[in-house]
Design goal:
Elements: H1 8-12, H2 23-26, H3 32-39, H4 41-44, E1 49-51, E2 57-63, E3 66-71, H5 72-81, E4 88-92, H6 93-113, E5 120-125, H7 132-142, E6 148-151, H8 154-163, E7 170-173, H9 179-190, E8 194-199, H10 204-215, E9 221-224, H11 249-261, E10 268-272, H12 282-301, E11 308-310, H13 334-349, E12 358-361, H14 365-368, E13 372-382, H15 399-410, H16 416-435, H17 441-461, H18 475-479, E14 481-485, H19 489-492, H20 494-499, E15 505-507, E16 517-522, E17 531-532, E18 535-537, E19 540-542, E20 545-547, E21 557-561, H21 567-570, E22 581-587, E23 593-599, H22 604-610, H23 615-631, H24 637-652
Parallel strand pairs: 4-22, 5-6, 5-12, 6-7, 7-8, 8-9, 9-10, 10-11, 11-12, 14-16
Antiparallel strand pairs: 1-2, 2-3, 4-13, 13-14, 13-21, 15-21, 16-17, 16-20, 18-19, 22-23
Helix pairs in contact: 6-7, 6-13, 8-9, 9-10, 12-13, 15-16, 15-17, 16-17, 23-24
């Protein structure tokens, strides 16, 4: 059932947003295969997620040669039994391990096939996900592959130095470096840790050389060059000449001159070239590698020994599952990415008889994105179904209401455009009368209900129309429900709000049922920006998400997938919603799972302390208020105790909605 877009152009064109127009959605017999195709799980899931016959989303892994599939709903049940309620971030440690293995195996296979004469060394950029247990897992599992870390600050360098497990692994020091940063890295080298300083600016070189002379420890240096290749994708404006990082060609020559003057050219061993983040087009990557190789050759000609070629990040994640050059997708696979890099380097250097360098990449997004997901429950739904309508209107009904009812009853494929225009006109006229105080509240409600019924009936007819009028293209959005989710967009999914990131979103259960409602998602931050209204559905970007009607007494849980990169570290405290509960599980070959780590989300006291309130002082201030109420005989002492207990319980409680 895997499908790819027939062309980039057809994919990138926004969908007409007409509800359920695809043939698969109109099928009378709904199946889990239909759900899998609708939500694209097999396209963006990279083999880690699927839909089972039970209608559950499952994590799919191969462990010790056995294929296992674990329903997310079972893990959610286990979380609830342990007091870890929605919303929560769920990490699957096996998925993170598998991504590290896939990345290293793909490069090693490409190296072997091309008879390349140097190894691959991956480094994980800590900024992509600084969470302790993510970094620990990368260090532990990555040790067998000599997988290292990239540190862009002193704090990240401290993390790397404490977590690195193997001295053949690299620590790449990017970012601006002061004397303290440099001294720490030099001491690491003295202890045998393979720490490389990458020069971002010419001004960093004297700081490093001065600290080196003072401590008597020679550094290993790299230079970050500014590539002129402009890449596709969301971050393309930061690539090429507009990149804010990297040395210009003249600045690079200045560095070479200073190193020669200090007799330190032998320290220059690495070239760093970062093209950009989430690069969707493989041609950009090949062009960038080609240019980087020429800089590498130039530095060897200047007398630098070199030995490492660091191509930075850029390996994309197909968030849409469209296999296209859309900024949220990618038109290549991991194996192709690795082969392109290895072959390009070899083709450039072999004719010059230059030894192959160790290939380094800083793939962060592609390493951790798949391993984490945000799970949340739906608290409420505001539907846009018309209210009950009478079969026959009372004789004294307003003329506008009678006209609306005529539109509804006479509507057909032949006159739907006319009925659309008339219904909106009559409704707006009634609204104007209401504003002037010339119509009652009930008249307005009846007019809007009938108009809504007309619009729903038109929307149902549109799939039979050869050409949908442009003014009706937004009908599904206009008629869509609002599903209120128990989460904060700003805290847990900041990229959706900040850069319009598309993330895969789907219900994790009931996928053997047809989703009959179109919805947008709203969070609980009481902010008009706290909503999600762009979704990748059946390889098209749509403004609504197909969902199921809620069932009384049953939780309806939704998963936002591929959130392991950046989302866990960029969140803020909008409305003082704190970190969610976090769970890490490990799945075994029998399909059983173990809760490895459990972290309770922030309490209200926690988040208040982050913004400089002292919970003990707040409790004392409230105690005084309650005591004053006792003094004024508004409440009894016994009532005061109950109130104080409720206040204290709230301070210690979860910042999100809690079911009783």
């Amino acid at each position: 059932m895997n499908m790819t877009a027939s062309s980039t152009q057809t994919h990138n064109k926004p969908a007409d947003n007409i509800a359920f127009t695809d043939d698969v959605i109109n099928s009378e017999s709904w199946s889990v295969e239909d759900s899998a195709q609708l939500y694209g799980v097999r396209n963006w899931g990279a083999g880690f997620f699927d839909v089972a016959e039970s209608g559950d989303v499952v994590v799919t892994l191969t462990i010790n040669g056995k294929n296992v599939a674990v329903p997310l709903a079972d893990i959610v049940t286990g979380m609830a039994e342990r007091g870890l309620h929605m919303p929560a971030v769920l990490r699957i440690e096996n998925v993170l391990d598998q991504r590290i293995k896939q990345l290293n195996d793909a490069f090693n296979n490409a190296i072997k096939a091309a008879h390349y004469q140097a190894p691959y060394r991956g480094v994980f950029p800590i900024k992509v996900n600084q969470q302790c247990h993510v970094i620990e897992e990368i260090a532990d599992f990555g040790r067998a592959y000599h997988h290292g870390f990239e540190a862009g600050s002193k704090a990240e360098l401290i993390i790397a130095l404490t977590q690195i497990k193997d001295h053949r692994s690299l620590i790449i020091c990017n970012g601006y470096k002061d004397s303290e940063f440099v001294e720490l890295g030099l001491y690491a080298r003295d202890m045998g840790i393979n720490c490389v300083f990458v020069l971002e600016t010419v001004s960093e070189l004297p700081i490093i050389l001065s600290a080196s002379e003072r401590l008597g420890i020679e550094p290993v240096l790299g230079v970050r060059i500014k590539s002129t290749v402009v890449v596709d994708g969301h971050w393309n404006k930061d690539s090429g000449d507009r990149s804010i990082f990297g040395l210009s060609t003249s600045a690079l020559v200045d560095v070479v001159e200073q190193l020669k003057a200090a007799d330190k050219m032998h320290c220059l061993q690495l070239l760093h070239c970062h093209l950009g983040s989430q690069i969707p087009n493989i041609r950009n990557i090949r062009s960038g590698v080609l240019e980087a190789c020429q800089f590498y050759v130039g530095l060897i000609d200047e007398g630098a020994p070199m030995g490492y070629l660091d191509l930075g990040g850029g390996l994309a994640v197909d968030y849409e599952g469209s296999n296209s050059t859309s900024c949220h997708s990618m038109n290549y696979q991991l194996d192709e990415y690795c082969v392109n890099i290895v072959e390009t380097i070899a083709d450039c250097l072999d004719p010059l008889d230059i030894e192959h360098p160790v290939i380094v990449t800083e793939s962060g997004r592609a390493t951790v994105a798949y391993s984490s997901m945000l799970l949340f429950n739906v608290l409420d739904v505001r539907d846009h179904k018309p209210g009950p309508l009478p079969d026959v209107l009372p004789e004294d009904s307003h003329e506008l209401i009678k006209n609306l009812m005529i539109c509804l009853k006479s509507l057909s494929l032949k006159n739907f455009q006319e009925c659309y225009n008339d219904a909106l006109y009559y409704r707006d006229e009634m609204r104007e009368l209401f504003r002037r105080g010339q119509s009652s509240l009930r008249n307005r409600a009846m007019a809007e209900n009938i108009c809504l019924a007309v619009l729903e009936k038109i929307a149902a007819l549109l799939p039979q129309v050869d050409r949908v009028p442009p003014e009706m293209a937004n009908l599904p959005e206009l008629l869509s429900d609002i599903y209120y989710g128990n989460f904060s967009l700003f805290q847990s999914l900041p990229d959706i709000w900040a850069i319009d990131q598309i993330l895969p979103i789907m219900p994790i259960q009931r996928l053997n049922e047809q989703p009959t409602r179109e919805a947008i998602l709203a969070d609980i931050t009481c902010d008009c920006d706290g909503k999600i209204d762009k979704f990748s559905i059946n390889q098209q970007i749509r403004s609504t998400l197909p969902l199921h009607p809620l069932i009384d007494g049953e939780d309806y849980n939704i998963g936002v997938f591929l959130v392991g990169a950046y989302q866990e570290t960029l969140g803020d405290l909008h409305n003082l919603f704190g970190d969610t509960n976090v769970v890490s599980v490990r799945i075994d070959e029998n399909g059983d799972f173990e809760f490895i780590h459990e972290f309770q989300g922030d309490s209200i006291a926690d988040v208040l302390s982050y913004v400089e309130y002292e919970p003990k002082r707040l409790l004392e201030q409230f105690r005084r208020t309650a005591e004053q109420a006792v003094k004024e005989k508004r409440i009894t002492v016994a009532k005061r105790q109950k109130i104080l207990k409720a206040f204290k319980d709230s301070l210690l409680g979860y910042t999100y909605f809690e079911h009783e």
